[in-house]
Amino acid sequence: MDGSRLSGSCRESARCVTLGSMPTYLRFVVAEIHESSTKELGVFHAVLRLREEGKLLSHEEELHDVTRQWFNENLEKPTRFTASKPPFYRKPNKAISWFKDSAKDHLAHIRDLVAILRNHGISVRMLKTDRVGYVVYEDEYQIVAEPFADETY
User: Fold this and answer.
1) Is the residue at 8 inside a domain?
2) Of 42, 43, 53, 137, which one's alpha carbon is 20 to 30 angstroms from that of 77?
3) Which domain holds residue 130?
4) Which pTM does this prediction carry?
């Protein structure tokens, strides 16, 4: 979209963003609802639950270990999961994590967890949005945000 075609107020604003530059965020979820966020459970938690229930095969446990180790080494742990003011530990963690679409290596490794879930008959959906909500944490590869009240992803 050419900036000269935008309305005068947008053309003059430093905050104006063209549609082509809008980032996309991705999240992989299962149908189960997470208690704190009240949103669909992410694949990290879903695979961990299967493991804790003793349902993973030995090669799946190994893949889970390798994948978790890779993420521990290549993805920062978010420092907060709430938009509330400190002390954070007293507030419900309603924020959810999204990968930036530019995090290609991370997305490739997430697919290993998706494969484990699908091997157990668990359907996984990939959600896409450019509207994550109230951002509480962000780094090069991910964003954590409390969804807007009207969001239905």
Assistant:
1) no
2) 53
3) 22-146
4) 0.77
